[in-house]
Amino acid sequence: MISQRKPTHPGAVLREDVLRPLGLTITEAAKRLGVPRRTLSALLREKIALRPAMAVRIGKATQTSPESWLYMQAKFDLWKAAQETIEVEEILSTSLEEMN
């Protein structure tokens, strides 16, 4: 079930719950993660999605699971997609009716 509340983007979690309390700049965090500053900045500003390779880097750096970071991104992406008006025709109910 997709939540009514907009999920938190993983970039916001990294920014607010990791970098800010540690007093790390974007430049220093990018260096420690081994990624371009521009890429990390875009993630922290929620302009790009978290990719699996970045989830692995963040997981290693924070001693958390990459899966938890990817799960945050998946929840965010699903919520965002559910906000769009998408017209579809049900497959299951049509198939069941045809079988009877």
Explain how this protein is built.
Helices cover 65% and strands 0% of the residues. The protein has 100 residues and is an all-alpha fold. The model has no long low-confidence stretch (mean pLDDT 92). Helix 2 packs across helix 3 and helix 4 (52-62) crosses helix 5. The protein has a single domain (10-99), classed as lambda repressor-like DNA-binding domains (434 Repressor (Amino-terminal Domain)), CATH 1.10.260.40. The protein starts with 9 loop residues before the first helix and ends with a helix.
Tally of individual domains: 1
Outline the low-pLDDT stretches. Answer: none
The quaternary state of the protein chains shown equals single chain
Helical percentage: 55-70%
Helix and strand sequence: HHHHHH
What is the terminal separation in angstroms?
A: 29 Å
- CATH class identity: Mainly Alpha
If helices are DSSP runs of H or I spanning 4 or more residues, what is the number of helices? 6
What do we call the CATH topology? Answer: 434 Repressor (Amino-terminal Domain)
**Average pLDDT score:** 92
Radius of gyration: 18 Å
- Shape category: elongated
The total beta strand count reads 0
How can the largest sheet be summarized?
none
Structural class: mainly alpha
